[in-house]
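About this split. The held-out portion is used to measure sequence recovery: a designer receives only the structure tokens and must propose an amino acid at every position. Recovery is the fraction of positions where the proposal matches the reference. Here is one held-out target exactly as it appears in the evaluation file.
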């Protein structure tokens, strides 16, 4: 069954043939929608085409597809049972591991998706403060629930009425947002760096991170870090730990279990009672297999220094891409941490050059994306990155030939 045949069948039984970010209407043309398998840093699409995977399933795959340690732990738990009347002992072990690993974590609660975690974190903040308003950065993605989905279809203005927007990295704008909601701010929610789609990424200004912490303390609001996308690729202790800024609550998911479905909120002692007061549950939130996979993933990242491996691969990729772009006469911007990179072409506001280049990369066996950041994994070896760079070099050459 080819990708085209699957799309045609899907059109009859799935609204639009596909939804969300994979919907062909907003995805990049020429991209496959269906995949057969993954192994290490490679994936094979439904047409059997092999790619060096620079998207890592949009973040979750951090050690490489089918990592033996994670698969072993998941299989061992699966042999005992996954969805039981309550969680397995592994829930406690995983919570202990997070509390030991993340300095701002005195407790952990688990769910399934990043949206569960961001939503739950804000509920904890509101339960603790008895306040309604949440300050969030304009354009930031925090999930697909009605309060945060980028498309307002199917939502009501009421569902967003308690959000006050600020500009990422502008302390002045954050202070102004807080002033408009004076006395009623439950939380500031912020991603560890600016990773909005279609735009160059922006690392956080340390003064902004420290200022957000100080403001939250001054007004008695919770500082929530949405580490769903960046978590476990910058610093296992939390992505603002290198800046010495600790949140009150953190939302985690994506890379936590190397592809198994799990999310977590971690928080400080002062918010334990508020967390306990929520009615938090889901049919699959206590499944033991994903918890076993998460424990194995975090331990393996820790014991093998997986982030250092990703940094080496990401640096090799970034340097290689700069050299190639220059050789082919392009000026490119590479932004964000090297482990969560993105490349844009100078003066390419309509992304037409990016679309041409990424499509050529795809044809030369490199899966990356024209308007969403990419992800490295600890499985990307020097040889794999070199192989990816062969594909990107041909893509630059073809894009140059196309543009003349
Ligand atoms: N927050 C951030 C920063 C994200 O990148 C995402 C997912 N891209 C989410 C929240 C939502 O996570 P999920 O798609 O697992 O619900």
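Reference sequence for scoring:
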């Amino acid at each position: 069954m080819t990708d085209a045949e699957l799309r045609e069948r899907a059109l009859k039984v799935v609204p639009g043939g596909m939804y969300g970010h994979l919907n062909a209407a907003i995805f990049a043309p020429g991209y496959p929608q269906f995949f057969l398998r993954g192994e290490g840093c490679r994936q094979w699409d439904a047409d059997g085409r092999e790619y060096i995977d620079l998207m890592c399933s949009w973040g979750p795959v951090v050690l490489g597809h089918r990592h033996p340690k994670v698969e072993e732990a998941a299989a061992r738990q699966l042999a005992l049972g996954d969805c039981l009347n309550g969680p397995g002992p592994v829930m406690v072990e995983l919570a202990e591991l997070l509390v030991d690993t993340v300095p701002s974590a005195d407790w952990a609660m688990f769910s399934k998706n990043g949206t569960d975690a961001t939503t739950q974190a804000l509920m904890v903040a509101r339960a603790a403060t008895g306040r309604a308003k949440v300050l969030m950065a304009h354009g930031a993605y925090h999930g697909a629930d009605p309060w945060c989905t980028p498309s307002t279809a199917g939502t009501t203005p009421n569902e967003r009425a308690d959000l006050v927007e600020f500009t990422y990295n502008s302390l002045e704008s954050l202070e102004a947002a807080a002033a408009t909601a004076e006395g009623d701010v439950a939380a500031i929610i912020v991603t560890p760096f600016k990773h909005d789609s279609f735009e160059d990424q922006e690392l956080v200004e340390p003064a902004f991170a420290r200022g957000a912490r100080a403001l939250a303390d001054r007004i008695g609001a919770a500082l929530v870090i949405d580490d769903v996308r960046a978590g476990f690729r910058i610093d296992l202790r939390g992505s603002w730990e290198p800046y010495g800024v600790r949140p009150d609550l953190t939302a985690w998911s994506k890379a936590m279990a190397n592809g198994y479905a799990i999310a977590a909120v971690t928080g400080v002692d002062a918010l334990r009672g508020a967390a306990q007061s929520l009615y938090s549950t889901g049919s699959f939130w206590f499944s033991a297999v994903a918890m076993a996979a998460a424990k194995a993933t975090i331990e393996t990242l820790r014991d093998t220094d997986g982030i250092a491996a990703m940094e080496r691969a990401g640096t090799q990729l970034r340097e290689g891409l700069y050299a190639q772009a220059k050789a082919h006469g392009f000026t490119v911007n590479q932004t964000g941490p090297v482990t969560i990179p993105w490349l844009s072409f100078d003066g390419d506001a309509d992304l037409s050059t990016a679309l041409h280049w990424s499509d050529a990369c795809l044809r030369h066996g490199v899966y990356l994306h024209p308007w969403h950041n990419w992800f490295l994994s600890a499985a990307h070896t020097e040889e794999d990155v070199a192989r990816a760079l062969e594909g990107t070099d041909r893509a630059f050459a073809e894009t140059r030939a196309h543009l003349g």
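Annotator remark: The chain has two domains: 3-65+305-403, 68-304.
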